[in-house]
Amino acid sequence: MTPELRNWYLSNLGIVQYQPKGEEPVSLPFHAPSSSEDVSSVAFSAKEEAASTLKFADEAENSTSQATEEPAFGSKPALAIDEAVSFRLACWQPCDDLLVFNQLPTGVNPEPEELQLLSNILRAIGRLPDGLPAPELIDWPMSHGGETDELAAHSMLSVFLDTRITKRGVLWVLLMGEVATKLLSPSEKAYSELVGAIEDISGGAKTIVVRSLQDMLKAPDAKAETWQVIKSLADRT
Length: 237
Description:
This protein is α/β, with parallel strands linked by helices. It is 38% helix and 15% strand.
């Protein structure tokens, strides 16, 4: 384990470490976009909020009748998980009990349409009390020359997730897309088998696997699939 990754683990576990004078603090892979990669939050008036909630629910309920063929997700994922992995995840915690992960191509920020869709989803289940916050961007590898294997990435994300559950009261973890699911789901099943699944994880929380925001924008019936899985959360606010 590299000193950088070790220090990151200790930091997230709340262990105070001695920092030699003149040594730079550890740079973590979790960061908000800089001014050069700003991701705008989505804000609505009360009227617009109600309209966006109904829009997502109506689109989801009606989209299955509009689809003429199966969604073309294909057998080859947009981002492949190999022995050596490279990925970016966007993470949001819009309220105390929910954490959201959505896969992104490496180095790419969420598109405005993806932010709009996520806002509609969260409002429809009563999980967006304020405007959508800017995401935390999770990049792997952490740095050039650092660890790159899948096991190390899984361990790093597990520490992050455990910390959010134990220290910030997360009860639901929404895994959007194959990369987030492979790295954070407790199951060893294939992603295609896990879409729609709700599973218990340590700390009393549950994971919910759905399609990525990108897939939902490409295939309208994926919204209906997602809505059927998450709509019960609207009664648990």
